[in-house]
Every structure is written in C-alpha cells, then in structure tokens.
Specification:
There is one protein chain. This protein starts with a strand and ends with a strand. The protein has an eight-stranded parallel beta sheet, with no helix packed on it. Helices cover 0% and strands 38% of the residues. The protein is mostly beta strands.
C-alpha cells in the first residue's frame, strides 16, 4: 500500500510514498498528541508516525512488442496498471499490444489509471498479417480512461471480439482511431455505463460515447451483432468516416442531455 508519515518536528506536515521509510519499526517514541485528534499519538522526539493508507499504487504497463507476432494471451488478470511517472492524467494502457495477429482469451484488465487494453500493431507495407486480431471472453472495465482502444493497423486484417465487455470506464468503452482500411466484428459484446468522466477527471459533458470510431479511410467497416451499447453519458455509437453495421443490439439509456443519438455517423 501507500505509506504516509506525520513529522512532529514540522508540526502538521505529512509525507506520502510507496514504501515505508528505511529503519521503520514498532518503536515507542511516538507520544505527542496529534493536533487534529489529541487521543492519538503523532510522532515524538526524533520519531515520525507511519501509517498504511490502504491505497494501491498503479504500476506501469505490460507491452507485447512487434517482434512477438501471433502471440496468445489467456487467463490473465491485470489490475491497477496504467500508472505514469509524468504529471497529469495517465495516457498509458495497462496492456499495450503492438504485435499483429495476437489472440486474447479470458483477459481481464481493470482499475487502470489510464486506458485498459490498447491494440496498436503496425504492419509493414506488403506484409499483411496471417490472421486477424481476436479478443474473446474478456473484460476491460472500471478503467480511468478508455476501456478498449484500437489504433493504427489493429484491424487491417480484421478484428473479431466475442463475448467481451467494457463497462464503467471513464471515457469510452471502445475507442477506435484507425489509419488503414479496417474491418471489425463485435459479437455478443457489452459496452455499458461508459463516459462517466472527462479527460481531466471531472464529470463529463456530452463528449464520451459508449463506442467512438474514427476512420482515416472511408469504407472501413465496424459491425455489431447482438450487443448491448447502453447507458453511456453520451451517444451509443459516434462514428466519423466509418461504415457502421448494426444488427440486434440494445441502445437503451444513452445520453442525458437531450441531444444524443443511438448511432451518429458523420463523414
């Protein structure tokens, strides 16, 4: 956990860190009453009081590099990732997949300080991947920013997501910004209760859709089958420059500003 200490020598000054101070022990040198609660002891002569806060520090990320194509990731749980040493809101993804033709099954990525899962392989010209990217029976929920992100050439040989959910993420459940012609199929997936925060961590206005799609080339196609795309703060699907194909999906409860759409497609 994260440790905090109270230093009596500077009155009410507190320090925080991820590890306890060197030489910490259960000594009895803390005897002076705390200014805010005199029934408790806060430090003493040459002593500081050290407490565990119960908070969990976020580690950085797991990266699958381009030199590891055709990787398979199964039965994996990643929590409290996405941490960054830089000031401000983290833009790291807890799981960053940069290799093409990767298969993920039963992968849960939750509680990230940044994004949950990022798929962003870069395919060399003239060398299309042998098989599509696939994500099955996985969960990317309760992350501070986007749950699932598709970027670059992630779906140049198609993406298939089956029985996967992205819920309660701060921005979108799914955010795709693809530069190449792409095709993606989402079958029996759930994108629910997303868009609860804006980019700086404050309550959002009408900006965060359950699914946000940005296509660099028109005619890239995203297909949704028997999926729940619901209860977002903004639109259900907000697509720019993409072809959207929807069948047997639930769009209930999206938007609370009176100007949102179940599906909004712009050129």
């Amino acid at each position: 956990g994260i440790y905090s200490s109270y230093d009596w020598s500077v009155s009410t000054y507190c320090l925080c860190g991820a590890t306890p101070p060197a030489g910490s022990d259960l000594g009895y040198g803390c005897y002076r009453p705390c200014p805010g609660n005199t029934s408790q002891a806060c430090g003493g002569s040459s002593y500081v009081s050290v407490y565990t806060t119960g908070a969990t520090p976020h580690w950085s990320q797991v990266v699958i590099m381009p030199r590891s194509p055709n990787s398979i990731i199964e039965h994996t749980v990643l929590t409290f990732g996405g941490g960054s040493s830089l000031p401000g809101v983290s833009t790291l993804a807890a799981l960053d997949v940069r290799s093409f033709s990767t298969e993920l099954r039963f992968v849960n990525v939750t509680q990230s300080a940044g994004h949950g899962l990022l798929l962003r392989p870069a395919v060399a010209a003239g060398s299309p991947p042998a098989r599509p990217m696939t994500v099955e029976d996985s969960d990317v929920s309760d992350n501070s920013r986007n749950g699932l992100m598709l970027a670059s050439d992630a779906c140049v040989s198609s993406c298939t997501l089956l029985r996967t959910q992205a819920r309660d993420n701060g921005l979108s459940g799914l955010y795709a910004d693809v530069s190449s012609f792409s095709t993606a199929l989402f079958d029996t997936c759930a994108f629910r209760r997303n868009g609860i925060l804006s980019g700086d961590g404050t309550p959002a206005a009408s900006i965060n859709s359950a699914v946000r799609l940005v296509c660099g080339l028109q005619n890239s196609t995203f297909s949704f089958r028997s999926s729940s795309i619901s209860e977002s703060l903004s639109h259900g699907i907000d697509a720019s420059g993409c072809t959207v194909d929807v069948q047997d999906c639930d769009f209930g409860g999206n938007g609370d500003h009176g100007s949102e759409y179940a599906v909004r497609v712009s050129v």
